[in-house]
Write a structure and sequence with these properties.
The chain contains 7 helices and 4 strands. By secondary structure, the chain is of the alpha+beta class. The protein has a domain of about 120 residues. Helix 3 crosses helix 4 and helix 4 runs antiparallel to helix 5.
């Protein structure tokens, strides 16, 4: 028997009509618990694939372009420090002691910009303000390495240092002289009447 689940649109419509008052602290704890389990799941999926003693677990938050109140979280792992960007959280996983530690959490671009413009912020936002300042000043890697006492390479540094190993493993060097133009004939548009209406 096939189990029928509600679509994201149906759930979004239900949430937009919900008038219940929720405790923000309870919601925050529930979200944090869910994030911790997803980080652990990402580690379990990548621990045997990444041949490094430590690697990064990344979480990106993205808004859905059609459903107004829907946010998606994507988890993945890299053997290097990922490029910092808004709505991103990064943890470092160490194989030797099976530990996961937070490296940074960057809020939305608007919040990052606001944090960097303020002279004084509440104590709980000071670390996020420092990360945001380092992001805009172009000193992010230096700051993160100093803050956590690590020497992990960034993506560009990792690829440069391991170029020969990556080429032997089958990675291809990109050819900058050749570009593949986008084929606009492949785009088709479906009419969206109301993104909040459940079909």
């Amino acid at each position: 028997m096939i189990e029928t689940r509600k679509t994201a649109g149906e759930l979004s419509h239900k949430v937009s009509n919900d008038t219940t008052k929720y405790d923000a602290i309870e919601v925050g704890h529930a979200m944090a618990d869910d994030i911790a389990s997803q980080v652990r799941k990402a580690v379990e999926n990548h621990v045997n694939m990444i041949d490094e003693p430590e690697f990064c677990v990344v979480m990106l938050i993205a808004e859905d372009p059609l459903i107004k109140n829907l946010k998606r979280r994507k988890f993945y792992c890299w053997p290097y420090l990922p490029s910092p960007r808004p709505n991103q959280a990064v943890w470092i996983y160490r194989k030797r002691n099976d530990s996961i530690n937070r490296l940074w959490v960057l809020p939305s671009a608007m919040v990052m910009s606001e944090l960097t413009s303020l002279a004084i912020v509440h104590k709980k936002y000071q670390t996020m303000q420092a990360w945001s300042l380092a992001f805009y000043q172009g000193t992010f890697w230096e700051y993160i390495r100093y803050e956590h006492g690590i020497d992990m390479l960034s993506e560009q540094e990792y690829i440069s240092e391991n170029r020969d190993k990556l080429l032997k493993a089958g990675c291809k060097e990109p050819d900058a002289s050749f570009s593949d133009p986008f084929d606009f004939s492949k785009i088709s548009v479906k009419k969206v009447v109301d993104s909040q209406t459940v079909l």
